[in-house]
Amino acid sequence: MKRRVSIFGATGSIGESTLALLRLKPEVYEVVALTGGQNIDALAKAAREFHAEIAVTAYEDRLDDLKTALADSGIEAAAGAEAIDEAACRPADWIMSAIVGAAGLPPGLKALEQGTTLALANKESLVTAGPLLLDTARAHNATILPVDSEHSAIFQALNGEKMDAVERVIITASGGAFRDWPLKDIANATPEQAASHPNWDMGKRITIDSASMFNKALEVIETREFFGVEPDQIEVLIHPESLIHALVGFRDKGLLAHVGPHDMRHAIGFALGYPVRPDLPLERLDLAKIGQLTFKAPDLDRYPALTIARTVMEIRGLAGAAFNGAKEAALDGFLDGRIGFTDMAPIVTGVIEIMSREGLGNAAITLESVREADQMARRRAFESMAAQ
Ligand code: NAD
Ligand code: MG
């Protein structure tokens, strides 16, 4: 019997890498649902190639375009957030969660409710609603497998280990586009400059979040939520070569590092094959040729997002949802030229401060409360940008 697979965010960077892996073994997989956004051509093309049951665009006003692009294919077309949720309820053995941003949470929850295996690239789900996601998985006997490279690395290093033997977890960061820029120049950086990553080829938003380290801040919180470690057990290490993705430090002071090519098909392939390691057509690292791997501590003046992550973990509750909402709004502001690159962190910090005074830390985490905190944070961030 074929394995039934769905991909949420099929037209993005992670989605396309996932499709590339399915393409290697078409006899093994049967594609159920593929979802995308504005790029209807790419969505329809993938749906036709993989004979998907249904293709869904996030945008209701693009439904006619999608229907036209799928004419005579026998593939169902649908549009809108509700249709994405419905597609997540279709029985599947393995579901990739690769929508970018807070929009990835609702279909992820729906997928878990049907007891499936959820390959989680959408880190925002864990940041905004970690306890809700994990409780839902537990209640429905579903499995969450990490896809973020650092978290896949931690997961792999923990294989066969006991959590109480773990002393610390170290996630690495390339340092992003501005790691070698003089601090004073970063304020004037453009979105184009921020969107060029030294090592990884990723979507635009996550690449800019790598330059600001908002991405690493999300990943620190993701580590805490997924692996249940305490904030002071999580460290960030700058590693410009991006070949060690994470290390786990044990009480006996041994460290297990995961080394792999900086190609997301490794982490996606691991989650797709789990528990069996697949044979992947990726670069075989020649460590003699690479010669050396280097490390340094992150400079918190250069990367204020890392301090924000600590604050969010201290407040807990809906602080993750507020953080992510404010960060997404600030990124929108930077992308459309309303604020500069270094304005993003103070805006996000301000939103979290105000909202924490309003009781953010004590609120229960439900889909509704997460949505409200997200929207409130976006509104507050826009007000703060308008006042600049
Ligand atoms: P991307 O921008 O390349 O693709 C995003 C996908 O989400 C697209 O299919 C897009 O159509 C869809 N989408 C966008 N807005 C949507 C909305 N409102 N509703 C429904 N669908 C929507 O992003 P990406 O780089 O592939 O990243 C996807 C997720 O994976 C993010 O959460 C990111 O943090 C995470 N991630 C990415 C990488 C990477 O290498 N790209 C690595 C680790 C984790
Ligand atoms: Mg990552």
What does this protein structure show overall?
The chain has three domains: 3-146, Rossmann fold (3-Layer(aba) Sandwich); 149-262 and 282-301, no CATH class; 316-388, RNA polymerase sigma factor, region 2, helix turn helix motif (Rna Polymerase Sigma Factor, Chain: A), CATH 1.10.1740.10. Helices cover 46% and strands 15% of the residues. It is globular and about 55 Å long. The protein has a seven-stranded parallel β-sheet, with helices on both faces. The protein has helices at residues 13-24, 40-49, 63-69, 81-88, 105-113, 123-139, 149-157, 183-186, 191-194, 204-212, 214-227, 265-273, 287-290, 305-315, 319-335, 344-357, 367-386, and strands spanning 3-8, 29-36, 54-57, 76-79, 94-97, 117-120, 143-146, 166-173, 234-238, 244-250, 255-259. It contains 17 helices and eleven strands. Helix 4 packs parallel to helix 5 (105-113) and helix 14 packs parallel to helix 16. By secondary structure, it is α/β, with parallel strands linked by helices. It starts with a strand and ends with a helix. The longest helix has 20 residues, at 367-386. The model has no long low-confidence stretch (mean pLDDT 97). The structure holds nicotinamide-adenine-dinucleotide and magnesium ion (MG). Nicotinamide-adenine-dinucleotide binds at residues 9-15, 36-37, 58, 84, 98-100, 103-104, 121-124, 148, 200, 202-203, 205-206, 264.
